[in-house]
């Protein structure tokens, strides 16, 4: 992983086609929520499939926890769809046959002489694609457990949401006074409840800009 992808840095805002061939921008997929980006070897790897199955089981908790999930693979479009369907993953899978992400992040798995793949990584992101934690999954146990992701997202949530502890007297007083500025999604950065429900459903806006760059 290139040395500037560290906690506090901004993860690159890649634009790649998804499993429907629509080009998607990571920041659009994220919206105002937290995010997990999974960089995977691809469908052929049993370790990757097993970890994906764990994420599938955990996914309903991502939804209610206001957290988006996206997988990036070097598989082709057809294999990407097989990967997504056969793991029952409901989130977007982006495919990168040109290895743009692999090259940009310097994560080519040079020990694999049969496949030109990425070293698997799991990236935990705060709002604005801010890197919180990077897990190197070259070995299976380097990947985060769901308990570790839960702990990471708890820490991120505490840093992100000003109303994390609404039992605080000052917050109660603000709410009773009609000041909702510190309350998500009602405050200064308020989004409509309709928009929030769309985000929770994964129905985020598709990137419609110039598709020429990553």
From TrEMBL:
InterPro entries: AhpC/TSA, Thioredoxin-like_sf. Residues 8-127 form the Alkyl hydroperoxide reductase subunit C/ Thiol specific antioxidant domain. Pfam families: AhpC-TSA (PF00578). It comes from the Bacteria. This is Redoxin domain-containing protein. It comes from Paracoccus angustae. The lineage of its organism: Bacteria, Pseudomonadati, Pseudomonadota, Alphaproteobacteria, Rhodobacterales.
